[in-house]
Amino acid sequence: MLTKDQKKEVVDQVVQRLKEAPSVVFVDYEGLDASFIANQRRQLAKQGIDYVVVKNTLLERAVKEVGLPVPDSLFTRMTAVGLGKTDPSILAKAFYKKPTNKAGEQRFAVKGAIVDGAFFDEGKVERLALLPTKNELIAQVCRGLNGPITGLAMALQQTVSSIVYALDKVREQKAQGTQAA
Q1: 160 phi and psi angles, rounded to 5 deg
Q2: Are 41 and 51 in contact (CB under 8 A)?
Q3: Edge-to-edge strands of the sheet including 49-53?
Q4: Domain count, the chain
Q5: Domain CATH for 103
Q6: Any alpha helices (H) in 21-133, and if so which ranges?
Q7: What is the mean pLDDT of residues 159-173?
């Protein structure tokens, strides 16, 4: 059991982390195996995402102290928080997995998220998770820009090849014309 001072310290730490993170995902981890959670925590850390488990009452105090627009219904059951300093879609992808309805399936149940100060319900988090990341979008734009440039280069090369071919034919004809004379 935490003392009042320890609870205040936990709330202060969570407040600090919430202020530093531009994106936050709230998940329900009830019923998940400890080994699954430990493995997910390692995977999340590799992506620069912190996974924090805090009592609902302390989390609710911290969220209210920061002033995040979160509904009270979020603080039911077992709640953990994912804090990301990266692209919000990376954070959403890390926690949102489509249910497969397989026996023994292990996945977090997303309750909601805060992205740039706005609350996203589970449906919005799903849509965010399905979006390409910033780097994927940049790669798509580059591929889109590269297509016309490649086509232009191929067309110019084809034109140069045609000119070289025509000049070679003229040279051959002149060579045959001088041999015949």
Answers
A1: -60, -45
A2: yes
A3: 49-53, 79-84, 23-28, 109-115, 118-120
A4: 2
A5: 3.30.70.1730
A6: 34-46, 56-66, 88-95, 122-130
A7: 78
Residue 97 φ then ψ, to 5°:
-130, 135
As a whole number of angstroms, the distance between CA 59 and CA 79 comes to 9
In this prediction the pTM is: 0.71
Q: pLDDT over 70 for what percent of the chain?
A: 96
Same domain flag for 33 and 95: yes
* Residue 37, token pair as written in the block: 């959670």
Same domain, 22 and 102: yes
The CB density around residue 87, as the number of other CB atoms within 10 Å, is 21
- Burial-class residue 51 by CB neighbours within 10 Å (0-12, 13-18, 19+): buried
Fill in the DSSP letter of residue 132: P
Q: Residue 175's domain spans which residues?
A: 134-181
Q: Is the pLDDT of residue 154 over 80?
A: no
Q: Which amino acid is at 134?
A: K
Q: What is the pLDDT of residues 47-104, one digit of tens each?
A: 888 898 989 889 999 988 888 888 888 888 888 999 988 778 888 888 887 767 677 7
Cα diameter, the chain = 112
